[in-house]
Amino acid sequence: MGQILSNPIVEKHIESSKDEFTAFGLCDMQGWRMSMEDAHITQLNIGDGSTSKDHIAFYSIFDGHGGSTVSQFCGEKCTSILQKEPNFIKGDLKQCLIDLYLSTDKELLKEPAIRNDHSGCTATSILVSKLQNLVVCANAGDSRTVLSTNGIAKALSYDHKPTLASEKSRIVAAGGFVEMDRVNGNLALSRAIGDFEFKSNDELSPEEQIVTCVPDVMEHSLDYSKDDFVILACDGIWDCLTSQECVDLVNYGISKGDMTLADISSRIIDVCCAPTTEGTGIGCDNMSIVIVALLKENESEDEWFTRIRNKKYQVNETFATKRRKIFNYFQFPENDPNNDDDDKNPVFDVTLRKVSPEEASRDAEKKRISGPVDLLSLEAILGASGIEITTNGENGDGNGAPIITGSALSEMLASLSNAAAGETEPEDFDPEDDDKLQEIK
Fold first, then answer.
1. Do 297 and 416 sit in the same domain of this protein?
2. d(CA 299, CA 375)
3. Is residue 414 pLDDT above 70, yes or no?
4. Residue 251 has pLDDT above 90, yes or no
5. Residue 65 is assigned to a structural domain of this protein
6. Does residue 72 form part of some domain?
7. pLDDT, tens digit, for every residue of 167-211?
8. Rounded to whole angstroms, how far apart are CA atoms 143 and 159?
9. Average of pLDDT values for 367-388?
């Protein structure tokens, strides 16, 4: 499950906007994790006339692991990288998304500070084209994109897990292995941007590496009489909800008549945030979700809401009842059955309550002590001579022989610090190093 806080960070980042083609509401939250490693893109129109005559909306969710370096780079740079792709300018939306993921890996490797970074991120992205009447989705990893068509969830992506036969065959052919459902016993997903330690075989193409950034791409021709909205979210949401359950919750929020897309996104995160860390582990991840409304020609966002409400989809569970069902091991306070999804409902106490200064201070100290080791900073503090651990000496004076020095200890610390939130596990620890540490008094 990775390192977690004693109290979740429940402050939310919320975005919403609209034009004449799409509207969206986004929410993300750090939650129980030690840091926020998700990033996103919400661009209403990247075909601005300079590179394309089309009106193209671009939405993407990046779920980082092993740090936020790669995901933040993607959130900041992928739009400009995409707009420069020749196939984007030509209007080949399927190929340009594949090119985007490959080009992003190449751009990352040009950054000296990133080249040896151990982080990576999953990515799920859509381009919505007005001219071509298409939604095109690219996905690498276990974030997910879902289309609601007549209230039914249609998959626009499929999760890439190491246990899938097609993924495992590539991993093994590239010299890797799957252990404990993880790539080389480490990574819980089999496709990602970054993660260059799994892409080091110069004799293999990017498609053939142990972990590849090459996405699966799906196209869907829009039918506005049936197609209502698209959901993009990280696995923190999908660990708690099936695709259909998430579509149903969005439709429930729409049916209420007083919630925006951002409100609905925020409430779904409330539903999925674990009430405690003592359960199964689900609900303790960073969470990001964006809901994209597909607007008809000359249709306003308000008119879209009215159109979807008039379809009167049958939804049997409220936000609160779904939350109780997901975390059925937890004894939630009783609530007024006539007020099942109101902000004051005690079922949402975890995400609505304010953390005291004392709790915040404890978590800050825990993060300071338990956070990943920055070896560059550590070496700067200790000096160019490096690090040395010695035995206590025969006379107990601390003047014993050195047992771990310089790079050996650095490598050991790096191995221990590579345990990232949820997706990665520590690399194998040398038993000889462990025996040596036991000698230290």
1. no
2. 54
3. no
4. yes
5. yes
6. yes
7. 999 999 999 999 999 999 999 999 999 999 999 999 999 999 999
8. 7
9. 42
* Strand arrangement, sheet containing 152-155: 4-18, 22-33, 287-294, 227-233, 144-149, 152-155
CA neighbor of 251 nearest in space, from 352, 151, 112, 368: 151
Alpha helical stretches, state H, 229-331 = 235-238, 243-256, 261-272, 301-310, 319-326
Of 124, 161, 162, nearest in space to 144 by CA: 124
Q: Which of 137, 180, 144 is nearest to 160 (CA)?
A: 144
The answer to the question of residue 346 being in a domain is no
Tokens representing 146 are 């879902």
Residue 232: give the domain boundaries. 4-326
Neighbours of 391 (CB within 10 A): 15
Domain end, chosen from 326, 361, 390, is at 326
User: Which residues lie closer than 8 Å to 269 by C-beta, 6 or more apart?
Assistant: 12, 27, 28, 29, 237, 287, 289, 351
Cβ 274 vs Cβ 283: under 8 Å = yes
Helix (H) or strand (E) holding 61: strand 56-65
Residues 386 and 306 in one domain: no
User: Is 62:42 a contact under the CB 8 Å cutoff?
Assistant: no
Which of 326, 358, 389 terminates a domain? The answer is 326
The CA distance from 229 to 181, in Å, is: 33
How many domains does one find in the chain?
2
**Number of Cα atoms under 13 Å in the Cβ half of residue 80:** 6
Is 354 among the domain residues? no
Predicted confidence (pLDDT) per residue in 83-104, tens digit: 999 999 999 999 999 999 999 9
* Tens of pLDDT, residues 118-161: 899 999 999 999 999 999 999 999 999 999 999 999 999 999 99
CATH of the domain at 44: 3.60.40.10
The pTM (predicted TM-score) of the whole model is 0.81
Cα-trace Rg, the chain: 24
In a 13 Å sphere around the CA of 272, the CA atoms on its Cβ side amount to 32
Decide which of 358 and 22 is more confident: 22
Both 211 and 84 in a single domain?
yes
Q: Are 89 and 141 in a shared domain? A: yes
Q: Same structural domain for residues 303 and 400?
A: no
Q: Identify the CA nearest to 229 among candidates 299, 150, 134.
A: 150
Q: Using an 8 Å Cβ cutoff, are 108 and 78 in contact? A: no
Instruction: Give Cα 252 distance to the centre of its chain.
Output: 25
